[in-house]
Fold this protein.
Amino acid sequence: MRARFWAFQPPTRVFRRRTTTHGDRSLSAAPRRRDATCLLAIVLSPVLAAGAGCDLPGDSGPSAPPRRVEKKAANPPPGLPASFTAGQRLDWSDCPESSGARGDGWECATMKAPLDYRRPGRDTIDVAMIRKRATGPERKRIGSLLLNFGGPGQSGIIGLPVFADDYEALNERYDLVSFDPRGVRGTAPVRCGKDEFEGADGCKKYSGRVLPYVGTSQTARDLDLMRYLLGDEKLHYFGVSYGTALGGVYAHHFPENVGRVVLEAPVDPALNRLEAEISGAEAVQLAFDRFAAHCARAYGDCPLGRDPAQAGRRVIELLKRLKKKPAPTGGDEKLDDSLAARAIGNYLDLGEEGWRPLVEALREVMERGGGGKLLDKAYDHGPKSRAAGTGAGARGRVSDSGSTSAFVAITCADSSVRPGFAAAERMIKRITAASPVFGETWSGAVYLCYDWPFKGESATFDVSADGAAPILVVANTGDPTTPYSGAGHMVAELGAGVGVLLTVRAEGHGSYPHIRCAAEAVDAYLLDGRTPPAACG
């Protein structure tokens, strides 16, 4: 899943999709030209313009979206007091500057939801939401497309403005909508210390009230309330990595409300979180081996040598040196072994696009002793900056502005796996054996929930969704983070006639929109409802 845990450091790694260009798709899309007919209609009469399906400028300036009559769907979530459904509307307004979304159709709102859906009449929470209005004519709008970019613990309020251009083709007919999941930033944020991450005791001290209620099944119920208040009878959803677990759990609880749902780079719902670490360690090792073979073929001066069989040994030696003596990076922080291993994994997440930069980063540290290029990829990269929570590995504490706390809290709320000491040590040996290069670093996840103050919900995610509409599962054969084998398990667990697998023959974690055949297949499904071929790439 889009989640790695290394000794209380930020867990997530870099999405391959987040590149500056995607073939002929640029992230800085040029503004669309207004149709000449619409221009004439607006000049002559706003009424004529509206009748022609033209967008009208709002009252607050040329970048404001036209006013829309917000509607609710006819199928509210069951079992909720009327104050959450009939008595609630989303009051969309300008987004805060901290979101990075100002003007150009961006709006933010706050949704009231029960803290505990099992007792909806008690405490409530605020759920932070963000929306980019559809850019095409209102009459062609399909509805809202809710997006989750992975995690757990990542902010959709921050993420959507950064990644929105990736979904430009979909934004013509969908409002793009994202949100902060429970435990994250604007939605019942979890704090596990005053200034630093202080472990389970800190989480209980500062956020004990919300810890039992930040799991994926509760957030899935938030999704259904969002669907209703956004005015959609069905949920249209695009989830990536951990976001596929959220989408699958939603489909399990609300199969009758499933619309067009895409699960990209899926987690494996058949594995518990520790079994998933073994599978992930094997996958990233295989991705490294493929990179090493390419490096030996393509570069006469490959820093890993001309023999791919020896490449792993060279990197293991590098990590041992960095463990004893971290490399300078040109800044205050130095590159140690765990940071280097994470960085290499992040480069591999980028697929073949990341291979050449990884060669340069390894050359810098192996030949010149500098760790700057690897450190740049050692953390999950949020909106144009390093994600909060950068730390000093197991040798120090981690500053905590939320991402680490949210990741730990959501993971431990979801997972009931609590191995004892002996079982944990056996698991560490298995993860280490699964990947000579990455296993030691990956095995830091074993003790994640060791002393968590609350029970987790289950060992694995239940995504069975009999009766749901077809759900598109998109997976790369060379994914180093969510192994391809998990996609088959996701399809099987969703149920016969529900899960539809699109196999993308490519390296890296995620394929939309930079792999053309995958983008075309996903667009055809979300925009026209067409089922894609079984494989591409």
Confidence is low (pLDDT under 50) at residues 1-15, 17-63, 381-400. Residues 273-298 form the longest helix (26 residues). The CA atoms of residues 212 and 454 lie 7 Å apart.
